[in-house]
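Ticket #4471: structure export looks truncated?
Reporter: QA, pipeline team
Priority: medium

Steps to reproduce: submit the single chain below to the structure queue and open the exported record.
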Amino acid sequence: EVQLVESGGGLVQPGGSLRLSCAASVFTESIYAMNWVRQAPGKGLDWVSCVDNSSGTTAYADPVKGRFTVSRDNTKNTLYLQMNDLKLEDTAVYFCAKAISYLGPMNSWGKGTLVTVSS
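Actual output as written to the record:
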């Protein structure tokens, strides 16, 4: 019913920046909150960020605080993740995921976009 498509991943050098996008094929009114989650090679899933769709309130995991910024454009049903000062440890597949509440369970996922930070 809900489709999420991530884009914007690629290869970047340490200290560089990327902006990820997640296009949602849902009505804005049907989304309460959106998240970014990542999976590093050989590792498990790590939550990155959440944004409340209505208020714009955001939350971040400690490793990305001060470097990543999540935002959304409700008119375009699009979620963004601006990633600055990228580190080697940020290398991962990044997924966007819809949630039914702010910081609540995620119930719809995209297929992910790969971010590789390498010198």
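Status: closed, not a bug. The export was complete when the record was re-opened. Leaving a note from the reviewer for reference: The mean pLDDT is 94.
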